[in-house]
Amino acid sequence: MTTPMLEIRNLHVRIEEREILKGVNLIVPRGEVHAIMGRNGSGKSTLSYVLAGKEDYEVTEGEVLLDGQNILEMEADERAAAGLFLAFQYPIEIPGVATMTFLKAAMNAQRKARGEGEISTPDFMRAVKEAGAALRIDSDMLKRALNVGFSGGEKKRAEVLQMALLRPKMCVLDETDSGLDIDALQVVSHGVNALRDGERAMLVITHYQRLLNHIVPDVVHVFSDGRIVESGDKSLALELEAKGYAGFDETKAA
Fold this sequence. Notes:
This protein is of the alpha/beta class. It has one domain (6-253): P-loop containing nucleotide triphosphate hydrolases (Rossmann fold, 3-Layer(aba) Sandwich). 39% of the residues lie in helices and 28% in strands. The longest helix has 15 residues, at 99-113.
């Protein structure tokens, strides 16, 4: 039997004595795109932060396996080296660090973790040019400090560019559609879809069904009060859009 790319078993998480995740169980097979939908405060973004290794969150129970390895025992950089990538809802600005410098450092950090040598400058420039073309990223944007003065769409495109260059096993997209107009959404979605293959898995976290018109999931999960309460195919997202989350809150309580 093939090992799932991501397997979450009975995950309980709290912050400052308040329990946020209350027994999350989730399996994402390799090659599949799964979506998590839920209202504000349901815990879905907390799940992404815990996967990435953000501090302040205390795991009180459960396991998270990435390609068979328990990543809860790893530091954030070790999780990235193991193949996990988190695209943030609000990518941070890093004044003084050129975007190109950051991208090359990130690629070389992962290569070092795999026991590979540093990427040559010509190979790096070629990779950035090819990946950037698909995301409509021009060279002037890459000369600027990382995310400083970028529009919402530019920040998301820069983040998907990182994903395209790092080629992770498991991509977690936390409300990637936040702050995007329809043109930017189409460009970003095209970049994400270009990375879909038979091995790489993705977890897309969103409020709205509109993103799933562009990044069509294999499975949709409904998140409510810190756990997954229902799963189904892409039609479940349309049902949520039409009826809202109230009916699923009742499912959870039953």
